[in-house]
Write a structure and sequence with these properties.
It is a single chain. With about 450 residues, the chain is of the alpha+beta class. It has 20 helices and 9 strands. Strand 4 and strand 5 form a beta hairpin. Helix 1 packs across helix 2, helix 8 crosses helix 11 and helix 10 packs antiparallel against helix 11. About 30% of the residues are buried.
Length: about 450
């Protein structure tokens, strides 16, 4: 491009840079061109100036935003022309977005929020970005996009950052494996700042209706990786965010409850598994889990240091509980007998139910599930907690709050919890003994 219509040659911008040596040459040329576009051709892009379609430009100029309309515009998107748009959210927050075509793809780039960035400032920045795009440089003015990692590399970093918050290896492995399986083929090798909404839609569309829960999790994890890119200045907007909602059909939320046996079938199930060919650790752990109504990970990770046999109490530390709070479990006579039998499993570690295959490690979650599947039981391990809760409601006069406390559920909201400090331990002791007498008389 040698010159812009209106006799504003690039040589003039060079003279401007010479007159103001403190301004970098490229920046001076770009700012001078942008100001010329705004001053002499306020609503014209370079391409439209070359076409000289004056009638169309006059119409467009009449529809431009004013300072008053910017201040009072209702929620929605309000175009100012040449790709500049004011976005007003229902909360009243106002921000500027510039749409540009870069490398053949449309990109929406945030310019800043109003009133920090006025209408005049937004127009000037938009003009500078258009000039930068024509020159083939980065329109955001960022020097960091060249350092942006590919999506797969960024996902690995985010995965490693979050490893401490996962309570088991299975959850950690599943997080990364889902991205490997569904996202890496499409966007794994693309730098973060080059990933567009169309790329995310292409990843999600094949599984959005056939595997809705998986698709929801994959999208959530992609969004997390892109947030990492935004925090480091490589990405302006998140392509996996709300902007793609319109391209994906709304899916009804289906509550998939874990399969559970009716409570009156639990005694027979315990008898059946007691005589199975499974490892002694698996059989005793499952029995202990049913008798105490705890979660799988809490039972499999049980440690002898947590057990007080003299007071028939098992204290699970906060870091092993889902709600991050210490949980005391009253032990029934049957539960204590199970612990006595488990002493024969000692492998030198402090684990109550150590793995027979991996010395010093707890049983895997698959071990208990395999035990149930061997006998084709229509339940999950977690389903025994549901059976216990149903029994509490139908076969006992136990207050609802006591049953919830036995399951280590948080009762009420945070304000109520601040006032109700009791864990109803004494009432739960009788409840757990009654349950043990029912399932293992």
């Amino acid at each position: 491009m040698e010159e812009v219509r209106g006799s504003i040659p690039l040589s003039s911008t060079r003279r401007t840079c010479q007159e103001f040596p403190e301004v970098p040459k490229a920046a001076g040329q770009r700012a001078f061109l942008a100001n010329c576009l705004l001053w002499q051709f306020p609503c014209h892009s370079v391409s439209s100036l070359e076409k000289g379609n004056s009638k169309r430009e006059l119409v467009r100029r009449s529809k431009r935003l004013t300072a008053k309309t910017v201040q009072h515009a209702p929620p929605g998107k309000h175009a100012d022309g040449d790709g500049l748009t004011l976005v007003v959210k229902p909360s009243g927050t106002r921000s500027w977005v510039m749409r540009l075509t870069i490398d053949g793809k449309q990109r929406d780039i945030g310019i800043g929020g109003y009133p920090s960035v006025s209408l005049a400032d937004a127009r000037l920045r938009a003009a500078e970005m258009r000039v930068a795009t024509i020159e083939g440089s980065d329109p955001t003015g960022s020097e960091r996009t060249g350092d942006a990692p590919a999506f797969a590399a960024a996902a690995k970093v985010v995965h490693e950052m979050n490893l401490p918050r996962w309570r088991n290896k299975h959850a950690a492995n599943e997080w990364f494996a889902s991205l490997e399986r569904y996202a890496f083929d499409r966007i794994g090798n693309i730098p973060l700042h080059r990933i567009e909404r169309s790329d995310i839609i292409a990843v999600l569309s094949p599984i959005w209706t056939t595997k809705p829960e998986t698709a929801r999790r994959v999208r959530q994890r992609i969004r997390k990786v892109m947030q990492y890119g935004m925090a480091h200045g490589w990405v302006e907007t998140n392509p996996a965010g709300e902007a793609i909602d319109g391209a994906l059909p709304s899916m009804p939320k289906v509550k998939n409850h874990q399969r559970a046996l009716p409570y009156f079938e639990v005694p027979a199930a315990l008898d059946k598994t007691a005589y199975s060919q499974a490892s002694e650790a698996s059989k005793l752990c499952l029995r202990f889990l049913v008798l105490t109504a705890v979660r799988s990970g809490e039972a499999r990770g049980a440690n002898w240091a947590e057990i007080d046999t003299e007071n028939a109490t098992w204290t699970i530390p906060a870091e092993r509980m889902k709600a991050n709070g210490e949980h005391r479990v009253p032990l029934s006579r049957q539960a204590l007998d199970t612990l006595e039998a488990a002493k024969s499993l000692n492998d030198g570690s402090s684990l109550v139910f150590p793995s027979p295959l991996r010395r010093g490690e707890p049983l895997s979650w698959q071990a208990l599930l395999k035990l149930l599947r061997t006998y084709e039981m229509e339940t999950t391990v977690h389903g025994f907690r549901s059976a216990f809760k149903t029994w509490c409601i139908e076969q006992s006069a136990t207050p609802w709050a006591v049953g919830e406390a036995a399951l280590a559920h948080v009762v009420g909201n945070s304000v109520e919890a601040a006032y109700v400090r009791s864990d109803l331990f004494d009432q739960r002791r009788q409840l757990m003994q009654n349950w043990a007498d029912y399932v293992a008389p």
